[in-house]
Amino acid sequence: MNASEYNETPVEASGSDIPSPVTLFSEICFASQALADNIKRCKYVKPTPIQRYAIPVAMAGRDLMACAQTGSGKTAAFCFPIISGILMANQKNKSFGNPRSIACPLALILAPTRELSCQIHEEAKKFSYQTGVKIVVAYGGAPIFQQLRNLENGVDILVATPGRLVDMIERGRVSLKNVKYLALDEADRMLDMGFEPQVRRIVQQMEMPPPCARQTLLFSATFPTEIQRLASDFLSNHIFLAAGKVGSSTDLIVQRVEFVSDMDKRDHLTNLLHAQKTNGTTGKDALILVFVETKKGADLLERWLCKRGFPSTAIHGDKVQMERERALRSFRNGLTPILVATDVAARGLDISNVAHVINFDLPKSIDDYVHRIGRTGRAGKSGLATAFFGEKNAPLAKDLVELMKEANQEIPNWLKEYAETTCITGNGRSKRFGGSKFAGYDYRSGDYVDGGNEDFSSQFANNTTASSYPYSAPDTSAFVPCITPVGADFSGFSNNSFETGSNSYGFDYRNVVATGWN
Ligand SMILES: Nc1ncnc2c1ncn2[C@@H]1O[C@H](COP(=O)(O)OP(=O)(O)OP(=O)(O)O)[C@@H](O)[C@H]1O
Fold this sequence. Notes:
Structural class: alpha/beta
Number of helices: 18
InterPro entries: DEAD/DEAH_box_helicase_dom, Ded1/Dbp1_DEADc, Helicase_ATP-bd, Helicase_C-like, P-loop_NTPase
Pfam families: DEAD, Helicase_C
Domain Helicase C-terminal: 268-419
Strand content: 5-15%
Largest sheet: 8 strands, mixed
Shape: globular
Number of strands: 14
Bound molecules: adenosine-5'-triphosphate
Domain Helicase ATP-binding: 55-241
């Protein structure tokens, strides 16, 4: 991780009695030296801003709602305190060894997709290496029997997707009665219309101890106000943290928006890919993730690309789990350096060397856009995101312009015009997040009108405390050296001016590489 990229990120904390942040991992009293050694083994030298604040808060036993940009280390921010807490209480679970026994995990981590659950499981295993803490993953689409067998060997931390967990509870194979730690990764997704009923059932109707008898940790890069309100049902006197602006994208990602009609999208995509290919910059070091709207669209585009000599694979919800895993594996190892995906790959996935995210079809919501482009520009590295914008994306224009402004991106004039002339205002980003001048927004600070010029700290004046790192406006030119070492040239970007109605930026896509990253 390029830690210096994150040092200036402002962190706002609100709530009562906020524990002090740390600057080094060595300041944190982890329950076991093994955990501290594992952090070193993972080459985590310094905590990221969200980790500096969130780890002390969670270690103090407080409930937490935390919002931090994609790729900023949220997984470790909830895993370290959970592992440490389990070790501290020395509450190793006694239920294993008996094949018919009910597994009673001490911690439950819920995530929205199978792939993300597996990734969290892998990370948590690294963090708990040689600590004795047992971690099991349970997700749908794979045979349940193997997962049940894994539970029989004992479980301290269960990482699960909601559907499979409910199935296991209903079969009488898992009980939540001993849960002391509940973490929801991608918490806003877990509480939106798709997942909320299932999550509510798990948390409120399936023996889970009530909020005051467990610790609840909610994390995401986006946190709409209405979802924050819903989430408060699960929390008790929580602390709210926002590293950077709630729902913002990192300025490590260079964002490009091109006007492309539906008819021209495929040709435009192949032009981009040809440009990268002629420079020899596709492959393991320059993975390209292409987002489309539909599962059928993903299959069709994958086939079309393969026929044109671009080794591609696709991932979406209609593929069986084995196919999904195979697709991800072949993308990760560069065998097929282009992955065509639906939103199933939009959240949480941490694949190094994704150099370029292309929104072939833009999503309807700006939050989905934030998560999608967040598959690049992770852990302090730079990345590129290109979006194909057409007439039908007009409702997104206002939110897109606002987001790009926040991330100090160059915005084409034609897009600004769309934003000004389109009546439909997308998700109403300004209202949801309190305007672009605010660093964070805890819904408990009350409703207010769009007040983009107000001082952020006044939002917390009554019953909350605010603390922050000094914020200096990010310098977008700073990213160039970190992505350029092997022949990459982004210089065309900053010198380029956009013309109204133009669909061409003269941007040199031949040089998009992920080399220079660790
Ligand atoms: N303190 C640290 N030092 C170095 N690397 C770190 C540190 N914390 C996390 N990382 C690495 O940063 C990458 C991104 O972390 P993680 O996947 O937790 O991000 P995230 O904030 O959860 O992103 P998303 O919002 O997309 O889910 C991972 O590869 C992780 O190993």
